[in-house]
Each structure stands twice: as C-alpha cells, then as structure tokens.
Amino acid sequence: MKSILIWVLAGALLGGIAASFIVPPMLSWYNEAGYLSQGGQPQAMVNLPQVVRYSTSRLIRGQAIGAGIGAVVFFVLGLAVGGRSRRRVAAPPAPAQRVQ
C-alpha cells in the first residue's frame, strides 16, 4: 500500500511539472493577439487584472489536470510493478532437518 501511494504521489508531481511546461504555450497559442488581423497592429483594449485572473486560473486548472492524469497513470504502473514484486516473494523454505 505504501509503495502504491509513493507511485501515485510521484505521478502527481511529475504530471504537475509536465503541465507547467505544456500549458503556457497552449494558452499563448489559443489566445494569440492579432491572429485575426494579420495585416497590421491589433487594436485592443485589455482589462489587465481580468487577463491575469484568466491566465492563472487556466494554468492552475491545467496543472491540476496534469497532476490527476499523472497520478492515475502512475497508480496503474504502481499496481503493475507492485503486483509483480509481490508474486516473486515466496515463502521461505523449511529448514532442513539433520539426519543422524
């Protein structure tokens, strides 16, 4: 049980780290300024606090999703690896009796 919990926590951590690298480029691609007006400078009025709240909430949501996916994937890996190691452990052999 302890080893599976370690696998799940490691997966959640790695999933969150991976999402930290994957989500920001996705946010910038999805919200690219001036994409529709290819010819010139885009004219935009921006409510900066709203943009910051939006982007940080999306980043945190992406990290939570990445951590969840990592935890599930590593849970399955932990079950596979843990199941294999439990099957290998056999009962110790009975001590040999000396014949005199």
Q: What is the global morphology? A: rod-shaped
- Going by helix content, strand content and strand pairing, the class is mainly alpha
N-to-C series of helices and strands = HH
Strand fraction equals under 5%
- What is the helical fraction, as a range of percent? over 70%
Number of discrete helical segments: 2
Structure write-up:
- By secondary structure, the protein is mainly alpha-helical.
- It has a domain at 1-32 and 57-85.
- The protein has 2 helices and no strands.
- It has helices spanning 2-30, 48-88.
- α1 packs antiparallel against α2.
- The longest helix is centred in the C-terminal third of the chain and has 41 residues, at 48-88.
- It starts with a helix and ends in a 12-residue tail after the last helix.
Could you outline the blueprint of secondary structure elements for this entry?
Layout: H1 2-30, H2 48-88
Give a concise summary.
The protein is mostly helical and 100 residues long. It has helices at 2-30, 48-88.
